[in-house]
Amino acid sequence: MSGPRVKIIAVAKDEGAYITDWVQHHLYLGFNAIDVYVNRTTDNSLDILKRINTIYPHVRGLNADWVDTCPQDAQNNLQYIIYAKAFADAKTNDEADYVLFLDIDEYWTPKSLAKSVQECILDNPDADTISIEWINEFGQDLSFQPLPQSIKGRINPLVKTLIKVTSEVEKHRFHKPELKQGKSVLVDGELFVKHHQIHEGLHEKLQHLRPVMIIHRAFRSPMEYVSLLNRGRPSDELKIKLNRGGYNECSGREVIFELNVKGYESYLDAKKKFVESLEINSLLQEAQSFVKNRYYLTLSYLPSVPWQYIPDLIKVFKGCSDTEKNSLVEAIKSSKTLPKCNNPDQLIELAKIVEKFDVHAANSIWKQALIHRPKGPKIKQKLKEYETNHV
């Protein structure tokens, strides 16, 4: 392919269910090479990448567990280490003219689905960096789906950035590097102006839809979202991530990014042929089963979560389907940790919070409070109210 050579560098953990779709997407749009560094992974990501590599040798899966031989402080900066090394290698070995750091849930997407990444770069030939805005895509009901033709989500101040390998990078960042000097633009050539508060963010006056956007597929579907809440390490005392705001919960202005209809049809047809050419269905089914099993494992952990974190669980499960909500209700009712709380005042305060989520779950906590304060008039009154309302 003529024009600038563009390479994607990605770091992945347990992303086997999505790698094939993500790789096809970016090859279709003109990216010349893709390196996926796989680290701390227990699924079949490397097997899938190996299969892709047999037909598309410019797509490589690289084991990055070597980072874990470093001291803990270095391990905590795994992505920075890999990004810096990969960028230096691309420059030293003349592997690419531009590099883009992406996660597997991030899709570089032109509205036309016809504009290549090379065309984007040729539109901005004197730029050292070209930043592309983010849309946090809302999830869909069905799991393991390709990008929809009509992408609904919220625009985000963060960006992802094409970096010219000859640019003078002072520090690599996840979203936009710090340059010693150079010109930084957006995909349509407008100068990049940084956000006054958000590091690596775009100034709020510049945040709007452009011809190319990064689609951030953080939610995908309720099942996949809950599956990703699993920390995945037996050594973790708390086995569920509680630093999420809820399903489809994100800040920013709501937008719709409509992909060209004819371009989308051609894109889906190419995706189907890509998967067929790989004869990879059994590996994909295995990877999807991994995600589903992790989902059920996450739900099985819920009754064991320390009772103090129940409000956090309610926040994290906000927006999920009735299936996930009902699982959380049953987990609270069968909590293994609530009986360990012998302070009725703490139980009462917790019950008041839980009541806004589900009265049946709250009822079980009020009953627990009654055990420790059997003559409590407020507790008895509340339980009587529940009984009257057939809770």
UniProtKB/TrEMBL annotation:
It comes from the Bacteria. This is Glycosyltransferase family 2 protein.
